[in-house]
Amino acid sequence: MARRPRGFKLLTLNTHKGFNSFNRRFVLHELREAVRGQSADVVFLQEVLGSHAAHAVRVPAWPERPQYEFLADSIWQDFAYGRNAVYTEGHHGNALLSKFPIVHYENHDVSVGTHEERGLLHCILRVPGSGLDVHAVCVHLGLREAHRRQQLQQLCELIGTEVPSDAPLLVAGDFNDWWLRANRRLQACGLREAFVECRGHLARSFPVRWPLLKLDRIYYRNARIDNPQVLSATPWSRLSDHAALTAEVHL
Questions:
Q1: Which positions, given as ranges, span the membrane (predicted)?
Q2: Which is more confident, 22 or 245?
């Protein structure tokens, strides 16, 4: 029988559409090298561009492929993209890169009104040697508390209807939870947060150069999480306005 894997590494990052803080510099190529250097097996990305006609003309070294494909390259054989915000020049959303097969994915629209277009990208990963399908949800919630309240409810409903109660589940991304109210709501769905469980507190992830706000999270269920880390030092401090988070996942 195939051995169960000892574990795999997760990374989550709001990519800021491939630009550094204040949009001063296009850093997607450097970002790809930094993500590669972490040897993550599953990568949750928020604010990743699918296309942008104006940037493609104006920005040197703009990739011919969508940003999520450029970042995946030959390292992450499978990827999924959930288009959320659509505008004249192009569109952006959430993406998931995986070294494991993605056997199914669906993007769930959780926009409230027309002010902010948001989605929950739900993927099912088949992890070789484990006999298990891992459910992964990439999250980027709204800036308004009232919107986040509704979106968290929709996330819990998604988990309740589409994720088996005994299946391993990972939920990661940018929750924009300024007031730290998401934990209590998500505990009702059986979720635990990696940094709270391992470090006793949520991770400070924004702004990346002086992390004060606890906006980015890694939640999980029916798994074990070890060694959660905040990546905010160089080179990460030059690659987005958010810090990246990583953790080891054991099934």
A1: none
A2: 245
